Amino acid sequence: MTVSKISKCPVIADLRPEDEPYSKVFTTNPANFFEQLRQQENLCQITMEGNFPVWLITKFDDAQQVLKDPRFTKVPADARDRTSPTYDPENEAPIYRMTEENMLSRDAPEHSRLRSLVQSAFAPRYIQGFRARIQQVADELLDKIQAKGTGQMDFVEEYAYPLPIVVLAELLGLPHHDREKLRIWSEVMMELRITDSNRQALEDASIGLRNYLKEVFVLRREQPGDDLVTALLEARNGTDKLSEEELYAMVFLLIVAGHETTAHLLGNSMYTLLANPDQLAMLRNDPALIVPAVDEMLRHSGPVLTSTMRRASTDIVWGGVTMKEGDGVLVVLSSANMDATKFTDPQVFDIKREYNKHIAFGFGAHFCIGASLARLEAEIAIAAMLQRFPDLQFDPAVDVLEWRNNMLIRGLRKLPLVF
Ligand code: HEM
User: Fold this and answer.
1) Most ligand 1 atoms within 8 A of CB, residue of 361, 375, 377, 408 to mutate
2) Sign of CA dihedral 13, 343, 303, 68
3) Is 10-418 CATH 1.25.40.10?
4) What would the pLDDT profile of 125-150 be if each residue is shown by its tens digit?
5) Atom 3, ligand 1: residue with shortest CA distance
6) 374 lines ligand 1 (CB under 6 A)
7) What totals of helices (H) and strands (E) does the chain contain, helices first?
8) Angle 358-360-361 from CA coordinates, rounded to 5°
9) For the chain, which residues make up each domain, given as ranges?
10) Which atom, in ligand 1's list, is nearest to the CA of 259?
């Protein structure tokens, strides 16, 4: 990514070459960087690969306004015209339909239609039915870690990553084989935009996922189960149902949106608790605090730094600037959640925080459909971990923890712990 010197934003114009790419500044010390952006009078613009101008929305009130303003469209700029006579479906890798035809890339009314076909599977009451199974998955992973007998673990690799993928696979009804591949596919496909530098990897990963899902759909049509894929194959609103391509796009979205996000919520939460021993002790003394603690982890150390990309559908005057039709807009959710006009002492991690209406799960029409599931997983996973290991600490042999270099997701590559 290039640094935009045309930007009127001094925070970006002053970036040193070693701060590139932006994702590095975003992830290593996001709180300070975002604070500087919020202090600017005008909105800040960056330039992403392909000379694509993108406005950063960093203040809480602006964030909520943008996320509910229909002038910002979710439909990607380069969405293909599949009605054109020159369109050749045989020569198109699945990634394009999967990304363009899922609900997160649609505006109303198509968005509402797709969302309504899957909504009931994510109703909080239904999700609570997974409690016992999530507890069991967490306990089995902890048994495995303990059975190694080393007193050490990589929390990210051995706990945070496997737990949500097992839960997601069971929710969807995906067979056990290829779960490891699911993780790799979702990691590759967790990109903000398709660009020349990531195109090949995304195309390859999407072919693997599509072939896998094709087998799953055949299996679930022959042997329906009590799972989400079966429900989606049968889902109907009156005479309306998902087309075959919409089915692929829906399951693709659920896998990509539900795995890395939850994995890094677990990783960031564990990190933040250990970095704040007073809060950790408070939680250990009163395990019922896990519910507000998870909310505070989402606000303070949420895994999703920015919203997905939106575009101005017309020229829009906002915060002292004019966004041109077609310009990109990213809502920096993690910055909004640190806005001192909304949250008292926002940089302080306080699991008893009184006012905590954060937007870590987004806001408006695209509000995260998996929020109840993610909260439940985090509550169970963190509580189980603390209960199992009363003397959990950072591994003293490791000095520096490395953050992933990604503008969308903030998460640790490894979190070595001793117990
Ligand atoms: C800690 C975990 C999670 C976080 C922080 C998170 C965050 C978000 C955010 C911020 C959005 C809105 C993006 C935007 O407006 O651009 C979103 C949308 C979405 N999330 Fe999540 N998510 C998490 C877990 C999950 C899980 C577990 C699932 C499903 C299994 C899921 C499925 C979705 C879907 C399908 C959407 C699109 C909704 C729509 O377009 O209407 N997410 N998520």
Assistant:
1) 361
2) negative
3) no
4) 889 999 999 999 999 999 999 999 99
5) 261
6) yes
7) 19, 12
8) 115
9) 10-418
10) 27
